[in-house]
Amino acid sequence: MNAWRRNQPFDDASARDWEHAAIATLAREAARSADTHLLKLDLPGFPGIAFYFKDEAAHPTGSLKHRLARSLYLYALCNGRLRAGQRVVDASSGSTAISEAWFARLLGLSFVAVMPACTAPQKIREVQALGATCDLVDDPSEVAARAAEHAARGACHLDQFGLAERATDWRGNNNIAESIIHQLAEETAPVPRWIVCGAGTGGTSATIGRYLRYRRLDTRLCVADPAGSAFARGWSSRRRDARADATTLIEGIGRARVEPGFLFEVVDTVAEVPDAASVAAAWRLETLLGRRYGGSSGTNFVACLQLAAAMRERGERGSIVSLLCDRGDRYAETLFDPAWLSAHDLDPRPWWTTLDRCIAEGRWQEPCGAER
Ligand SMILES: *Cc1c(COP(=O)(O)O)cnc(C)c1O
Prior knowledge:
Elements: H1 3-6, H2 12-32, E1 38-41, E2 49-55, H3 65-78, E3 88-91, H4 95-107, E4 111-116, H5 121-129, E5 133-137, H6 143-152, E6 156-157, H7 160-167, H8 176-183, E7 194-197, H9 203-214, E8 220-226, H10 230-237, E9 269-273, H11 275-289, H12 295-313, E10 318-324, H13 338-343, H14 349-361
Parallel strand pairs: 2-10, 3-4, 3-6, 4-5, 7-8, 7-10, 8-9
Antiparallel strand pairs: 1-2
Helix pairs in contact: 2-3, 3-4, 3-7, 4-5, 7-9, 11-12, 11-14
Bound molecules: pyridoxal-5'-phosphate (PLP).
């Protein structure tokens, strides 16, 4: 036996058998999954401009992180980093943890979610209901260090912030960009003028931006992020050491630092959206679509309306695509609770006027003295 063999901690053949079985389990889960709907919305103020929203809340784990979690497990397995019986850990503001816990259960692994203690209670309950453990950290800036501690003790770190951008197959394989373009094929404007998404790990914007170039499509990518986010600061200065100069109450996006997966070069514009506008838009989406979606879907909707108003002013027609990132029922006790909003000094009311006028007349006019 050579030195390489002697260094193997496990019986190599049975370790490989388990890897193959785990990869087959992920492939079967993918085969059982339906694609998510691309919902169409026609707004009276925008004749000739069609809005489409990809309903990522429809995944079994309720958010676009279902795609990411599947990719991260597959990436860990194919890199030989995930073994039978190994504990799995990741740092997450909630949605990723729910999806990763779901896949851990599917694969028969135990999962630890390191999350800020201020995460929406409903998300914490969902992670625990899937049999995972939540390690709650008081200071949100310390989640990465805590996840690294678990990894140092032997856990497999899925590392969404480090790996999201590369774990997804950007050339296709039914990634979110390929799926959108395919679903638009029969529409009047099948090549959208804009695709709008947020930036949490940066994985979605990286995948979409690369795919648009790869397919040579004349579509521009807009990242919609909370005002003052690190992505917005870093994108405009091209500095990777940029820091957010405001905090946000919108979960999943608006990171405080430039994450490793933030690719500035593939993003054509950044829309900075105040939290109160995002919340107002999430409420409006419920009226328009008959279902609740989370705050980051509202952020996206605001950017869509701003881009559409600019298109309308220039006399352009076409389509704008965005994402409904997660289910709104997760925020019943936060963004959809008027008492919680006033306790957090968020007033969506002035923005409702802005949104309703824009939807009706196609013009974007911010409330006077609007902040946050
Ligand atoms: C993660 C997340 C995003 C951003 O997606 P990334 O691909 O991580 O940049 C937006 N909204 C919600 C609710 C999320 O969980």
